[in-house]
Design goal:
binds pyruvic acid; binds acetyl coenzyme *A; 20% strand; TIM Barrel; 526 residues; Double Stranded RNA Binding Domain; 3-stranded antiparallel β-sheet
Length: 526
């Protein structure tokens, strides 16, 4: 590895990430995240702002007792207050009390902030930067200086912006980091400015800290690296203030696979999807399926032409091998599927079928007709498998519903909710049609109970099957309550779960279809 090609990854998920709306970690969660980032090979982990809140204080107390095998933990804060000596500034004191090997402080670059926000003079601001850095250096810390609003400051007054970086360098900063705090910069212009800053502060190395306000936080970070920056600050999954920070789950694979840079975590990139999703889980967020590299849809092919080509040569429609970042190729089924998509999906489910056969043609015709009627197999693998087995393996029905009737009664004054279902059903191996009646709070529950009564001891494998989740939506706008309703149902047996679908203008019938497929899917195991 050439030094010139090596980048340090600085993670601020636990500080700038938590400045994002809806993101909150307990001190214990922060420790868990820090441990995950450390095992992954992240170089710097910014744990929080110690003087800012009790939770961050607890984090740093807990972090002191931990040994991190690779990462350096950093405490974040600001330069000293105006007209106060650094040694008398309580905020700088708390940064030292955090006992981290690294301290990161931000200072002002943009004169607007110096005069209107700090309400001090340009000279005093330069002194605040230099003194604060020197104070922390003299206390034995590695010091990273974050030049807040560097690019806005540079646009306003390049000479003053560069002076602030030099003040940090003069104080002894180990790094100066160029922050696009408001996230408004554009790539080509920013690259020229980074080149100039790198030359001006040399030999002090430069880092990038970009925000995603124009949707290009990652592009700005990569452009900065190409212009000579050697540290990238960002967050996992792009958490952060407003629309977020540069997303490290995109930055890292791009640095490695697209630009050929090296960093410690590159050896663990095949665990990237797992890392990102586990952090989402701690943050109580649903992973973004459209996230580059690691999203569930990042290598999902829906168009039949794409699936056909990707099956022959995966790189024909995939920019990298999904496994390199711990992801996988997925084939989605819909009315855009061709024989190859269906054959691949069937293969995933353990059913080998010939994509060119006449049986396949008739299956695809049937699939597309059903999709047109509102069934959605893309998200209902179990219904697809039932359809596939019936078509290709001639699987016959273990039961056939002859008819059903449901009645619901709601007594509003007593808050009573009672539904009754009567079903007539033919069960395999039995001569007579069975008629059963059952009650529940809702009509689908009543139907389910009546079905199970009719099954009797016939299908013991259905005993543990339970409804876990149920989604319903209408498919046609403009028809109001007469629209076709689509139901997606998640069932489970304690060991695994499966999705089924139904579609009908009658919500009970759509629910029944999804329920029936759920039973049928489980009975395929016989
Ligand atoms: C770009 C960034 O992301 S920077 C990080 C932003 N993150 C946060 O603010 C989260 C943590 N913040 C906090 O908990 C609180 O704001 C604290 C504890 C830091 C400060 O709280 P308070 O003392 O009550 O001040 P308050 O939040 O009202 O205002 C911020 C103060 O910091 C001052 N300040 C802002 N930047 C700097 C700086 N670089 N150096 C010194 N002082 C600064 C402001 O001038 C203001 O003081 P003033 O009102 O006397 O002018
Ligand atoms: C330091 C920082 O978080 C910023 O300027 O955006």
């Amino acid at each position: 590895m050439k030094d010139a090609d090596s980048i340090l990854i600085y993670d601020t998920t636990l500080r700038d990430g938590t400045q994002g709306e809806g993101i909150s970690f307990s001190a214990e969660d922060k420790i868990l995240v820090a441990e995950k980032l450390d095992s992954f090979g992240i170089d710097y982990i910014e744990g929080g702002w110690p003087g800012s809140n009790p939770r961050d204080m607890v984090f740093f107390d807990l972090a002191k007792k931990k040994t991190f095998k690779h990462a350096k933990i950093t405490a974040f804060g600001s330069t000293r207050r105006a007209n106060l000596k650094a040694e008398d500034d309580p905020q700088l004191a708390t940064l030292l009390e955090a006992e981290t090997p690294v301290v990161t402080i931000f200072g002002k670059t943009w004169l607007l902030h110096v005069t209107e926000v700090l309400r001090t003079t340009p000279e005093e601001n330069l002194a605040m930067i230099e003194d604060s850095v020197r104070f922390l250096k003299e206390a034995g810390r590695e010091v990273i200086y974050d030049a807040e609003h560097f690019f806005d400051g540079f646009k306003d007054n390049p000479e003053y912006a560069l002076k602030t970086l030099k003040a940090a360098a003069k104080g002894g900063a180990d790094w100066v980091v160029l922050c696009d705090t408001n996230g408004g910069s554009q790539v080509t212009w920013l690259q020229g400015v980074v080149k100039q800053a790198v030359e001006e502060v040399s030999p002090v190395p430069v880092g990038m800290h970009c925000h995603n306000d124009c949707g290009i936080g990652v592009a700005l970070s990569l452009a900065g690296v190409e212009a000579g920056a050697r540290m990238v600050q960002g967050t996992q999954n792009g958490y952060g203030e407003r629309v977020g920070n540069a997303n490290l789950t995109t930055v890292m694979p791009s640095l490695c696979f697209k630009l050929g840079y090296h960093f410690a975590a590159e050896q663990n990139l095949e665990k990237l999807s797992r890392l990102a999703h586990s952090i989402d889980k701690l943050a109580n967020l649903v992973p973004d399926s459209k996230a580059p590299y690691i999203g569930r849809s990042a290598f999902a092919h829906k168009g039949g032409v794409h699936a056909n080509a990707a099956q022959k040569v995966s790189r024909s429609y995939e920019h990298i091998e999904p496994e390199l970042v711990g992801n996988r190729q997925r084939i989605l089924l819909s009315d855009m599927a061709g024989g190859s998509s269906v054959a691949m999906k069937a293969g995933e489910l353990g059913i080998e079928v010939d994509p060119k056969s006449s049986e396949m043609r008739s299956f695809i015709k049937r699939l597309k007709e059903r999709e047109a009627r509102g069934y959605e197999y893309e998200n209902a693998d179990a219904s697809f498998q039932v359809l596939l087995s019936r078509h290709f393996h001639g699987t016959t029905d273990n039961f056939k519903l002859v008819s059903y009737r449901t009645i619901s009664e709601v007594v509003r004054d007593n808050h009573e909710n009672i539904s009754e279902a009567v079903v007539k059903i033919r069960v395999e191996g039995e001569e007579d049609i069975k008629i059963t009646v059952a009650e529940s709070t809702g009509p689908v529950g009543a139907l389910d109970h009546a079905m199970r009564l009719a099954f009797g001891a016939h299908f013991p494998e259905l005993r543990n099957v339970q409804l876990i989740d149920y989604k319903v939506r209408i498919l046609q706008t403009g028809l109001g309550t007469d629209s076709v309703v689509q139901v997606l149902m998640l069932s489970g047996d304690g060991e695994k779960t499966w999705w089924t679908c139904g579609a009908n203008p009658n919500i009970i019938e759509a629910s029944w279809q999804a329920l029936r497929d759920s039973y049928r899917y489980k009975l395929l195991e016989r």
